TrEMBL record, chains A, B:
Protein name: Transcriptional regulator CtsR
Annotated InterPro entries: CtsR, CtsR_C, CtsR_C_sf, CtsR_N, CtsR_N_sf
Domain CtsR N-terminal HTH: 5-74
Domain CtsR C-terminal dimerization: 77-149
Family named by the database record: Belongs to the CtsR family.
Any Pfam family hit: CtsR
Superkingdom, taxonomy of origin: Bacteria
KW Repressor (keyword) present: yes
Record keywords, A-Z: DNA-binding, Repressor, Transcription, Transcription regulation
Segments crossing the lipid bilayer: none
Length: 155, 155
DNA sequence: ATAATGAAAGTCAATATTAGTCAAAGGTAG
DNA sequence: CTACCTTTGACTAATATTGACTTTCATTAT
């Protein structure tokens, strides 16, 4: 979240706009130029910081008049988004992705700060470590899905 | 306890900042350089002097713009109860036992009903099933202990 | 209409830049 | 001497940056 690397700065820039507008539409090359980075870094920023787990949906178009549009989704307006998140998990989940999901739930007032911490404790790398990363990620996915499914009915 | 060794000096340095700011963010290599030690010694200092028992939480990020952030947290007054429960768990925990722990926490106003349900979702038999009951119970113990440890403080 | 062209964005893998782990070696207190 | 703590460094892991190559789409030329 700090500003020592360009990806974080670009993330902040975009989120600042999204804090007011619920949607941004950018030209990849323009933004890349603005921050003096290679165009594909914009894809990197989007992929790592604006996925469904983070509460964003991204659309884009190539060719002439191309664009990238980032939309902030609201879980309360549309509980189906939780299903999207569950789908995006599939059967494997890293801690980082799990954390993004928990923070998205927090932002949408589905859980509070204490509950974020409970969830993060449960899916923690140290906690879930079994010596096998694949098994760990499968387990984390199952735990997160179980929690999400429960939240669907209780909130 | 005095500054005869570098680890103590680094500890003091960081705690002096934390006495005013409740949070420090450092670059591992910079601090290592500042005190003329190998980078991994910073990890040693953090591990031995800034753990949860000491009232600190540590977050970090690798790669470009990486950092280590140390946050001082406020320990809560339910410490004794939670410590007792943690000790009673050991390294194995059945779902039934886990459920009674969650209910004990509820009775003591350490968590609320929703939080009980989140915990139960996480330690559920179906969620944690790996085909091996022993492993499942070990895992459940680790998850519960991790959650309990985080319930000791506020962030 | 169809094909060629150019202007976007996407993918992926190599490289760079951090921090983490672990165990061996070196000190120090009792 | 022994047990514990500190220091060191080789190896590992995660994250960021870069650029060559690919795909998609609108426009222009035939």
């Amino acid at each position: 979240m700090q500003g020592k690397n360009v990806s974080d700065i670009i993330e902040k820039y975009l989120k600042k706009i999204l804090a007011e507008d619920s949607e941004v539409e950018i030209s990849r090359s323009e933004i890349a130029n603005l921050f003096n980075v290679v165009p594909s870094q914009i894809n990197y920023v989007i992929k790592t910081r604006f996925g469904i787990p983070n509460g964003y949906i991204v659309e884009s178009k190539r060719g002439g008049g191309g664009y990238i549009r980032i939309e902030k989704v609201k879980l309360l307006d549309n509980l189906d988004i939780i299903n999207l998140i569950v789908e995006s998990i599939g059967d494997t989940l890293s801690y980082k992705e799990g954390k993004s999901i928990a923070l998205t739930l927090l932002e949408n007032d589905i859980i509070n700060n204490k509950e974020v911490n409970i969830i993060l404790s449960a899916i923690n790398c140290k906690t879930l470590n079994t010596g096998n990363k694949t098994i760990e990620n499968n387990l984390r996915a199952r735990i997160m899905i179980s929690i999400l499914n429960h939240l669907k009915y209780e909130s």
